[in-house]
Amino acid sequence: MKCNRVATASALGLVLVSLAAFGCDSDDSVDPSPTDGGQGGSGGRGGSAPTAGKNAFPSGGSTADAGAAGGEPIADGGEVGAGGAAGGAPGAEEGRLVIADTNAATLYIYSVPALEQLAIIDDVKFADHAGFLPLNDGRVLLTDSATNELISLRVLGDEPGVTGRAGLTYPAIHLAVDPAHEYAAISGAGPAAGEPGAFTLVRLGDFYHRSVSIPTGEPGLLLGGSPLHLYHRNDDPAQVEAYLFEDLWKGTVSLKGSVAIGAAPHGEALAHADGKMFVAADDGINVIPTDGAELGEVTQIPYDLDGKTGGRAFYARLSSDAKYLYSYLRDSGPNYDWAWKDWVSDAYVVDIQNETAKRIEVGKGLVYRLADSEKYAVFVQYHPDGDFAHFMDTDPESDTFQEIVAKVPLEKMSKTPTGPDADPWSSEAFRMAGMVPSGRYAFVSHGGDGKVSMIDTARMEVAGEIELPTPLNYGGYLLGVEPGAVVRDTVAR
């Protein structure tokens, strides 16, 4: 495969990458449809063939099949290992911060905590609804809403860059991987109401991929169970459906089981070790026991508790040990008519084993998409009178476990909307949060000002700032990565 990089620098130097420059001649490309029981292609120049893993399936088709395509691993010198691992050896024990400026179609990669810019990747319009999904081998998955692709990034090591791409039928809505990180699934809704959605399945060792059509509304999805199943969280009708992954991989769509859930479902997680699926809906967190195709009786965990009422969850994250579910609830009035400065936001914590929950007040204004880690979860409070990063203790051994233990003030954004009719959702001034998995550093964006603050959680103060060449309108998106981190949450957000 003949592929050209735009420019590279010496070790730990700045890398500039343009996806448009990955032009590849097809005369010596990797065979996309191996028939040897699931072993894929070369994994890029200098790589070796991946060993068939726990859930390895034959390709079951070729690039001539409807929706099938030969994936394109493009790692420079990376080696593909057992179970689809790729991306080269990590560097020193420093972390990385990945910043997506969606509006500018640019990705940035910085070292942590030095905040040295290591790479700029142009021409990637990050799909923020699908989000980032880090893998145990250090790669990061994301989707591009302009080119309709799944993209794999190598962010650790001396030379960050793109390691693989797979084409999607429709723009990505949700992204998930199986527990072994061998396969990914990406959902996309059809362009018109009532049309089937396209679910693209990708083998992460060689990026061979194929798509299948499943009727859907807003298509949530998870991968889990033994044997491996794709769980489709539909919202029209509101139900969870189970499909055997091996059938889908062969192009066969056969519903194995389904169960009705609460109205307007959105936000899901799968606790693999406990065999429980959690789906946020209007009636509470729906809990569904899962065992392959078997979907058990649905129970609900309420939102109204601890003397607090109002709001519902739309977003769900597993704790780093997968024993808790973290979300947030926002009460914006009985008719959703309060001014945003008066909205009340709470952290919402679910004990996965006991199926109990509690609400913890964060403050007034807008709280959106928390970031969690081994030691803390950060909830960013966005308010016209001032913004704060609130830290909840997530260390089970701590005396202050699941309490708010710090409130760090943030520099005011220059474009923060004001006035009684101000709308934070349409403002270029917006906040997004990120953390490295250890919890040592947290990050908060300054939408419209092209800045990201780094918070040192040992001192609970802003300890550094990144100034970007693009304005980071609408807050962008942030992800912290560290060598050796174990990823148990297999749903991207």
Explain the overall architecture.
This protein has 493 residues and is mainly β. The chain has a domain at 331-493. It contains one helix and 36 strands. The chain has a five-stranded mixed sheet, with no helix packed on it. It has a five-stranded antiparallel sheet with strand order 2-9-8-7-6, with no helix packed on it. A hairpin with a 4-residue loop joins strand 6 (133-134) and strand 7. 51% of the residues are buried.
Topology overview:
Elements: E1 15-18, E2 72-73, E3 95-101, E4 106-112, E5 117-122, E6 133-134, E7 139-144, E8 149-154, E9 161-167, E10 174-177, E11 183-188, E12 196-203, E13 209-215, E14 220-224, E15 229-235, E16 238-244, H1 245-249, E17 255-260, E18 268-271, E19 276-281, E20 284-291, E21 294-295, E22 299-301, E23 317-318, E24 324-331, E25 344-351, E26 356-364, E27 366-367, E28 371-372, E29 376-382, E30 387-393, E31 404-410, E32 433-435, E33 441-446, E34 451-456, E35 461-467, E36 477-481
Parallel strand pairs: 1-5
Antiparallel strand pairs: 2-9, 3-4, 3-36, 4-5, 6-7, 7-8, 8-9, 10-11, 11-12, 12-13, 14-15, 15-16, 16-17, 18-19, 19-20, 20-21, 20-22, 23-24, 24-25, 25-26, 27-29, 28-29, 29-30, 30-31, 32-33, 33-34, 34-35
